[in-house]
Amino acid sequence: MRSTRHLKMDFIFAPEIKSDLDRIIEKIGLAYIKRQNLVAFKSFGSKSRAMARIWSLPRIWQLALQTEAHYCIEVISEKFAKLSQAEKEKVLIHELLHIPKNFSGSLLSHRRKGRTIDKKAVDKLYKLLQKNG
Q1: Is 45 left (phi over 0), alpha (psi -120 to 50) or beta?
Q2: Residue pLDDT, tens place only, 48-84
Q3: Which residues are CB-neighbours of 68 under 8 A, at least 6 positions away?
Q4: Residue ranges of the domains in the chain?
Q5: CATH 3.30.700 matches 10-131
C-alpha cells in the first residue's frame, strides 16, 4: 500500500532575494516602498503554479499587533531557481507592482482603473532597471 503522506511546505528567509529587491526598488524609483518592511522568503514543496507570491499584513492585523504595514515576497524555489536572471528580475518587479503607493498593507489587483500589472508594465520597468544598472 502506498503512503498518503504529504510533503510539508517550508519557508526560509532569502537574503539574496531581499538584496535583489532592494536594488530593483532603488534603480526603478519605487521610493514609496519601505524596504525595512519588506521581507523575502524562499518556499519549498509548494503545489502553486506561481513563480512567486506577495503576502501583506492587512490593517486589522497592523492594529492588533501595533505595527506598520509589512509585505513578504515568496519565491517558489523549485520554479524560480530555473529562471534566467532577467526573468527572475521581471518576476520580482511584478510582485513589487502589487504594493500600493500608500504602503497601506493592501494589495493591488492585476486589473484596476487605468492600470494593469501585466507583461507590458513589467517590461517597461525592466528596461528602466537595465538602463540604471
Answers
A1: left
A2: 899 999 999 999 999 999 999 999 999 999 999 999 9
A3: 34, 37, 62
A4: 10-131
A5: no
Q: How far apart are the C-alpha atoms of 78 and 73, rounded to whole Å? A: 15
Q: What is the DSSP pairing of strand 115-116 with strand 111-112?
A: antiparallel
Instruction: For residue 113, give every residue at least 6 positions away whose Cβ sits within 8 Å of its Cβ, in sequence order, or none.
Output: none
Q: What is the pTM of this model?
A: 0.91
- Give 61's Cβ-side CA count (13 Å radius): 10
Q: How confident is the model at residue 1 (pLDDT cuts 50, 70, 90)?
A: very low
What DSSP assignment string belongs to 55-89? EE--HHHHHHHT----EEEEEEHHHHTTS-HHHHH
- CA atoms of 86 and 70, how far apart (whole Å): 26
Residue that has been written with the C-alpha cell 526560509 in this structure: 12
